[in-house]
Design goal:
Strand content: 25-35%
Largest sheet: 13 strands, mixed
CATH architecture of the largest domain: 3-Layer(aba) Sandwich
CATH class of the largest domain: Alpha Beta
Number of helices: 10
CATH topology of the largest domain: Aminopeptidase
Amino acid sequence: MTAQGDSTGHNGGGPQVVDLRTVSAKDLEPLLADEIGEWRRELDWDFAPSAELVRQYAGTNSLGGAALMVDGEVAGYGYAVLEEPRGIIGDVYVRPRGRVPRYEAELFGSLLTALQSTPRITRMESQLMLAGSEAAAMIRDSNATRGTPVRLFERRLMSRVGAIPLPPTNGVLESRFRLAGWDERYMQASSIVIAGAYKGETDSEINSQYRSPGGARRFLGNIVEFPGCGAFHRPSSFIAFERDTGEPAGMVLASFVAGDVGHISQLCVVPAARGVGLGKELLRMSADVLCRQGARLVSLTVTSANNTAISIYEKFGFRSVRTFFAYVWEAAV
């Protein structure tokens, strides 16, 4: 995939969007340093592992994407990866000094145009935690006028300090469910939970991998194996099974996204097991282990339309610290 080289200016000295492969890893370094600092400052997230992957791929000129050049310096960049039939816009970032929403929108538009012209790519997904609401609106509106509408889904980053207090013993949970610590042999069972939990839900519109056990298994592999969602933390990850049938009923996966920050990267319960407190218990158990193993803060993300989940998180002391957007484009049938 090659990003389109459209220009945001009309002369050689003006801002320009260029192919990311024309930019050296050395020239990207100041921008990546800014991004690492902003992720830590704004989100309590250590972006350094992700930045290192960008360095590695940029150093081999194999990272498909776009760069924003201003006065001969790299002022912003974005990249996309292909997971046919979808393309993922993994990041769009413009340094704080001189940042304007138009730059973020034009970087995004360049990446989307490249994906749309890539054979066998019929869908784009993206979640940009640092891009603001003005940039999101520009992305939506500019693509609507081009006849390639991008849907926006508002999401929240929520966090709380410390572990969740231990609730009264729930006899129903103990008698009905068996909770087990995470193990790779539960990959298939967890995939079934995800596909069942998100069927017909907004989150399956945001992430198409939630729609089938096969897609969910690939999603789980990314959480467990790659640093984009932090360093996977096995001790704070659990799965629940129905005692009577052995069927998987719910799960929670967690990571450390910084040395002192834990993150609930996945929490879901199948419809048949809801309403008895299983999700709350999985959340409490995971947060408890994270805090006992060094997390001063526990965070999670949730789609703003999921009022039920947000209400539960707020009762547990989680507070919204940032609003961001997920973006979805699909080719016309």
